[in-house]
Design brief:
This is Lipase. The chain is built from 12 helices and 9 strands. It has about 350 residues and is of the alpha/beta class. The chain starts with 7 loop residues before the first strand and ends in a 13-residue tail after the last helix. A 9-stranded mixed β-sheet has the order 1-2-3-5-4-6-7-8-9, sandwiched between helices. Helix 11 links the parallel strand 8 and strand 9. The chain has 2 domains: about 250 residues, Alpha/Beta hydrolase fold, catalytic domain (Rossmann fold, 3-Layer(aba) Sandwich), CATH 3.40.50.1820; about 90 residues. The relative contact order is 0.12.
């Protein structure tokens, strides 16, 4: 099974991509590749999109960025590869390509291709991201480097961070130079106490149906009805979908609809979220983390605690908490780009572990 990782099941030129965007790149394909489920070890098939810059590749091939998207939904129609603008990510991807990077952009298992999406299960996401690099190299043999960097925000920030932790063994044959994680959902164990106590923020209440639905995929004995009731349960299919009208269902959610039904259910939720929390192992490469001080979805103290634990495991971490920023706008811009370029250039990575940041 491991030998099949990243092999191409099917591929075709990427159809429907906005022509203004297509004109700026050298090649774009949609493909389905093989990967592995992180929670049961089963073979999986994952879709994604794959891009090359224009022109002649540098010596050693185009450096690779494995791009990890944030939450789109949990159903098969939620893969960015099915959207003309990659569900809003096209401009970010094209910016990376035009700056001289090949880009592997996974949909994640169960999005864009048949299967079920284990939302925020870190190992599956890590494997999807790593195997997307293998798929890119298989699509364009001989012109894509083995040097790669993972980049993502929110769900993608968690996925990129997890890929860093698993790259040391699962990523054999590839050379990870670093990872950038914006507003990473690294540790959501605080959601359990918030749900138990009724202290979730409105953003977190909206997140809970997706969290519960994702856990049910990875945990066969997980009982959704122990956690969701009323509109949260009745409209779960809509809440985790990519339907255009789903926002009206989010407006109906209230904290009591996502409160565990018993102390035992609350304890079970805490246990699973703790198990999924990062870090799970030492980092394989430097990590850059940026999050907003006003983030009401992934609380700043959650991110800081996860960073501190990664540092304690010997990681090289540069952490920036952006004052006044929320969940969707923590990107520090040029600083993160320069950090990325320095990693590809082989420069020593900075770290502010154990500083006041």
């Amino acid at each position: 099974m491991r030998e099949a990782r990243g092999t191409i099941v099917e591929s075709a030129p990427l159809a429907g991509l906005d022509e203004g965007l297509r004109s700026q790149i050298g090649a774009a394909r949609r493909a389905v590749y093989r990967s592995v489920s992180g929670f049961d070890g089963a073979a999986t098939e994952v879709s994604g999109t794959f891009f090359l810059p224009s022109g002649k590749p540098p010596a050693g091939g185009w450096p690779v960025i494995s791009f990890a998207h944030g939450t789109t939904g949990l159903t098969n129609d939620c893969g960015p590869s099915e959207s003309p603008d990659l569900m809003g990510y096209a401009s970010s991807v094209i910016s990376l390509v035009t700056s001289g990077h090949a880009v592997a952009f996974t949909d994640y298992q169960g999005l864009g291709h048949p299967g079920r999406h284990a939302y925020l299960e870190p190992r599956s996401a890590a494997f999807d991201i790593i195997d997307a690099v293998r798929a890119l190299r298989n699509l364009y043999p001989g012109i894509v480097s083995d040097k790669w960097l993972a980049l993502g925000g929110s769900q993608g920030g968690q996925a990129s961070w997890a890929a860093n932790e698993y790259a040391g063994d699962y990523g054999d044959g590839l050379d990870l130079v670093g990872t950038i994680a914006f507003a990473p959902a690294a540790d959501l164990s605080g959601l359990a106490d918030g749900a138990r106590n009724g202290t979730l923020t409105p953003d977190q209440v909206g997140l809970m149906p997706s969290v519960i639905a994702g856990l049910e995929v990875a945990q066969p004995d997980f009982v959704v009805s122990d956690y969701l009731r009323g509109p949260a349960a009745e409209h779960l299919g809509k809440l985790i979908s990519c339907d255009e009208d789903k926002e009206q269902y989010f407006a109906q959610l209230r904290p009591e609809q996502v409160r565990p039904a018993s102390a035992a259910a609350a304890d079970r939720l805490t246990e699973i979220l703790d198990t999924n929390a990062l870090p799970q192992r030492p980092l394989a490469a430097p990590l850059y983390v940026a999050n907003g001080s006003q983030d009401t979805l992934i609380l700043p103290e959650w991110v800081s605690a996860a960073v501190s634990r990664a540092c304690s495991r010997g990681g090289t971490v540069e952490h920036k908490e952006m004052a006044g920023r929320g969940h969707v706008d923590p990107d520090p811009g040029a600083e993160a780009y320069l950090w990325m370029q320095d990693r590809f250039a082989g420069k020593a990575a900075p770290s502010n572990c154990f500083s006041d940041r």
